[in-house]
Design brief:
Elements (H helix, E strand, L loop, with lengths): L1 H21 L17 H11 L16 H4 L7 H4 L19 H22 L36 E3 L2 E3 L14 H23 L1 H7 L1
Antiparallel strand pairs: 1-2
Length: 212
């Protein structure tokens, strides 16, 4: 036990000697650095670093106008400024029965009927002759055969541009329009006619042999 106490005392003595040697203790007050003051050396260093950027346009621009000028000014609403332009309605004298769906549909139908009657009255009456013949405005009906048929679209072909072959555009999922069957039928008829004529010629070959 005595050996432990001796070692403890010697340890604390060495700590005290180290504390006196380096002048450090709990009572020493830490010096508070004043961040408001700038050292002359650091100031000169910063000034030297910022010197090449003088006269250049900064990317961080402050708005020249005031914030109040940038914001939209509060304007007075028009219905308060010019109340004579507006007509005010009140629903105080309206009963719940008048606001039902049935009354709304009835009033809507009545309004539509009234508009139709006004439109019918404003239309000009047809001019009649003494023989009670009604003259109507002539209408020109163009038959479907007279209408211009759309020009057939020519198939796109590859184009040679600037040493490159540009292929026609192809849209995925869109099929090309097939040719009309009329041309195919004409070709078939012409082929059938040609084949029938050859058949007839072949059948008449034996007649020429008998004449000889």
């Amino acid at each position: 036990m005595t050996s432990f106490q001796d070692r403890q005392k010697s340890l604390f003595n060495t700590l005290k000697e180290a504390e006196d040697q380096y002048s450090f203790s709990k009572t020493n007050k830490a010096t508070h650095q004043d961040y408001g003051t700038i050292d002359k050396y650091t100031y000169k260093k910063l000034k030297h670093e910022m010197k090449p950027f003088r006269g250049r346009e900064s990317i961080y621009k402050k708005p020249q106008a005031n914030i109040r000028e940038c914001l939209r000014a509060k304007t007075i609403p028009d219905h308060i400024k010019n109340p004579q332009k507006y007509k005010y309605y009140s629903l105080a004298d309206v009963t719940p029965e008048q606001m039902s769906d049935s009354t709304n549909t009835a009033t809507a139908l009545a309004l539509i009927r009234e508009l139709e009657e006004k439109e019918a009255a404003t239309q000009k009456p047809m001019e009649t002759d003494l023989d009670d013949g009604v003259f109507k405005k002539p209408t020109f009906c163009i038959s479907s055969s007279m209408k211009k048929s759309p020009k057939p679209e020519e198939p796109e072909k590859p184009v040679f541009k600037s040493n490159k072959v540009v292929m026609p555009e192809y849209v995925v999922g869109v099929t090309k329009k097939k040719e009309k069957k009329v041309n195919l039928l004409k070709k078939e008829n012409s082929n059938n006619a040609a084949s029938s004529s050859t058949k007839v010629e072949l059948k008449l070959d034996h007649l020429f042999e008998d004449d000889e």
